Here is the input.
Amino acid sequence: MSLDEKVKAMGIDIEDFSPSPTLAPATRIGNTIYCSGHVSTGYVGKLGAGVDVETGKQAARVCAEDLLKAAYTLTGTVNNLRLRKLLGAVNSAPDFTDQHLVINGASELFWELYDGEKHARSALGFSSLPNGFAVEIEAVFEIVD
Amino acid sequence: MSLDEKVKAMGIDIEDFSPSPTLAPATRIGNTIYCSGHVSTGYVGKLGAGVDVETGKQAARVCAEDLLKAAYTLTGTVNNLRLRKLLGAVNSAPDFTDQHLVINGASELFWELYDGEKHARSALGFSSLPNGFAVEIEAVFEIVD
Amino acid sequence: MSLDEKVKAMGIDIEDFSPSPTLAPATRIGNTIYCSGHVSTGYVGKLGAGVDVETGKQAARVCAEDLLKAAYTLTGTVNNLRLRKLLGAVNSAPDFTDQHLVINGASELFWELYDGEKHARSALGFSSLPNGFAVEIEAVFEIVD
Here is the structure.
C-alpha cells in the first residue's frame, strides 16, 4: 500500500484543506519543507486549566493532519514525504507539565503512517496561543526520491 | 527595481546593523540561512499587559528589519534572498490571543518587499522574553540563484 | 587535536546517551541535522521562581552535551559536526528576563569546542516545560566535509 493509499485508509482527506489567504501553509528549500504552525481548529483553551490531556491529544492530531495536508500542497503526493521534525506548542497553565503527552497525539498519527519511523521533536509550554487555540505545531518534512 | 533598490526605497539602511559580539546574526547551511532570534530593540513589555497590538506590530517590524540585515551579512545583497519562514515570539499575558496580529507587523514588511509572496510562519505567546523585549522573531531565508 | 579528542578532553563521554524509545534524538536532511529538544536531566523548576541563573546555566550545559551526543548518533564522529543554531527554552516565571544568560550555559560549551566560532541562537521564556524541566534546547548542526 502506498502512503497516499494509507493516508486515505486512515480516514484523512488530504485535499480537504483551507490555506490562509496571506501565509504559506508550507514553503520549500531544496528537498526540505518548512510548514507553518498549524493550530488545533475546533479546540481552544489551556491545558492544566480546563483542557485535559486526552482532549489535548485530539487537538494535536488535528494539527498533525493539517501539517501533512500543508506539505502535500507542495508535492501533490504523500508518497515522497517523510516527517523529520515537529515543534509542538501547548497552550499551558504555569504548572502543566505533560506537554509531551499532548504532542504524542500528533506523533501517533505519523508513527502510524510511517510504520513507527521516529521523528525529532520538541514539546513546549506556551503562556498563550493565537485565538486561544489549545495546540499549535510546526513541522519539517523531507522530500525523498 | 532590484530588491537592493527596493529595500533602500522602503527606508531601510541595510548596513546599519550592530551584531552581537558572541552570537552569529545568521548562519548558513548550503543555500539555507538560519537567523538568530532578533529582539524588538526599543520596545519592551508584555502584550495584553501594557503593550497594545499596534505597538506590538511596530516592535515586530523592528525585528523584521534586523532579520533582513542579519541575512544580508552573509550575502552582501538582498537580491538573492527570499524569506521562507518566520517564528514569531510575542511576550504575552496569559489571556492575550492576538499573537498573529502582532507578528503581521513583521510579515507586512516582507509581503511588501516580495510583492505579496507568502512565507510560512508560526506566531506564539511566551511568558517572558530576554530583557523584557516585547517581540523576538527568528527566520529562515533561502539564497536563490 | 581533533574535535573527537577535544570532546573527550572536555570530559564529555559522547557515547553515554540514552535515546527515547519513540523519538529520534536527531534526524538528517542532506547535511543538515535537526536535533530534538533535549531537556535538562537532573534540573527541574522555574527560573525566577526558585531556580537561579547559575543553576539554569548548568541545566543548559546538560542540554548542550545531550544535543552533541544526539547529533553524534547520526555521524559516529564529532569531527565533521558544526553547530549552526540553538533554540533555547527556559522555564520562566512571567517576570524573568535573563533567558539569554541561562542559555549561555549551552553556548559556552560550543564556543569552547569550536574555538569561539559563533552560532545563531534564540533564547525564549516558556510558561512551563515537560515534566517541569528547567531548560529544553533544540539545535541544528551541519555535517561538513
Observations:
- The beta strands of chain C are 26-29, 32-35, 38-39, 46-47, 50-51, 81-91, 120-126, 135-143.
- Chain C has three helices and eight strands.
- Chain C touches chain A at residues 20, 22-30, 32, 34-37, 46, 87, 89, 91, 94, 126-132, 136, 138 (CB under 8 Å).
- The radius of gyration of chain C is 15 Å.
